Amino acid sequence: MGMIWEDRNKYQRWLDVEIAVTETLAEQGIIPKDVAAEIKTKAAFSVNRINDIEAEVKHDVIAFTQSVAEHVGPAARFFHFGLTSSDVLDTAMALQVRDASVLILEGIQRLISVLKKRAHEFKTTVIVGRTHGIHAEPTTFGLKLALFHDEVVRQQARFKDAVETMRVGKLSGAVGTFAHLSPDIEEKVMAKLHLKAAPASSQVIQRDRHAHYITSLALLGATLEKIAVEVRHLQRTEVREAEEFFSTKQKGSSAMPHKRNPITSEQIAGLARILRSNAVAAMENVALWHERDISHSSVERIIFPDSTSLADYLLDKTAALIEKLVVYPDRMKENLELTHGLIYSGELLLALVEKNVTREDAYRWVQRNAMRVWDEGGTFKEKVQTDPDIQKTLAKQDIEHVFDSERLLKNVDRIFTRVFGG
């Protein structure tokens, strides 16, 4: 990913745009074909020379064209013919973004595959569900991973849409009027570069496209953070239902040798904040003065390399995190019983309602027994079995049925079919 954004590759992409323009102009009879051929053969640049020239002229594209002209010679009079700087910059950036997006899409697909594999591995591994951080009803660890899989697939679709939105270039000139080159030339050049021509542009491609792209990466990062936060919670000492892989020679703390900290998950959560902050910067770039100002340029030199590199890195980290995640089903079972059966209160409520008890009465009967467990100890099932109102309403087999976790998980297969297909 880093190579895509380094100066040499950036200038090569500028040259790719320039050569495509030169070839097209020659094909249309606007410049001599032998001159275009000479430009293509001799065109080259030196990063150091560009830096030296830019230090004097304070303009990167002029420094670039001057460096190329030094290699081409007299034929360079037709290099950069009819173009303004942003014609090259914005079109070349579209090429860089396209290349970066290929790597990010590969990372997304890898994460999707890892989540699918491990979701099926733990499809029926029962774990307590939590709402507000408090035990709720049973679920499965596989369903947690299936939920993440479903969300990452949505992020994949959003990102693909953003990639397509960025797959545009422009050659419309200083204010977007095609004063020097025609729309036909633009369309032919974009076809050579496998881009689309922006339907309308000012001196620049409009930055709502760029904001869409960077925001899609921020959303992707939010999902990766969501996965990481879940792992961080599950690894807490009091929970310890899953934890990051800890290598033999790894150390968790300089002061406490016993520590095994969720450092990868914390890193993912922290770096996702950078992606979100970059999205704000990208949105600030949408409103430029009139046909263009330069306020967006310096921002994009930071946020595009940073956001694409971070997204690529975080996808790799998250996929490895899930792939190597150590899972403790026995601990999940222990924690399932931690509240002594209180997690079946909702099922008991419905069982009473099905026996024609009003919801208000049923709720009161269930709650008073649940509160006794919190305050007195013992099991919820024991309290329920000795409650006179519940005893006269539910048979013994009805109560046994209420406290059977398998009943609450009867639709796991249906959910997996929805998420992963038949």
Strand order of the largest sheet: 1-2
- Multimeric organization: single chain
Shape: elongated
What helical percentage do the residues reach?
55-70%
Helix and strand sequence: HHHHHHEEHEHEHEHHEHHHHHHHH
What distance separates the N and C termini?
36 Å
Number of domains: 3
Strand content: under 5%
CATH topology name of the largest domain, in short, is: Fumarase C, Chain A, domain 2
Number of helices: 19
Low-confidence stretches: none
Q: C-alpha Rg, in Å? A: 31 Å
In total, the number of strands is 6
Architecture of the largest domain, CATH level 2? Up-down Bundle
- What is the name of the CATH superfamily of the largest domain? Fumarase/aspartase (Central domain)
**Structural class by helix and strand composition:** mainly alpha
Q: Can you identify the CATH class of the largest domain? A: Mainly Alpha
The largest sheet, given as strand count, sense and whether it forms a barrel, is:
2 strands, antiparallel
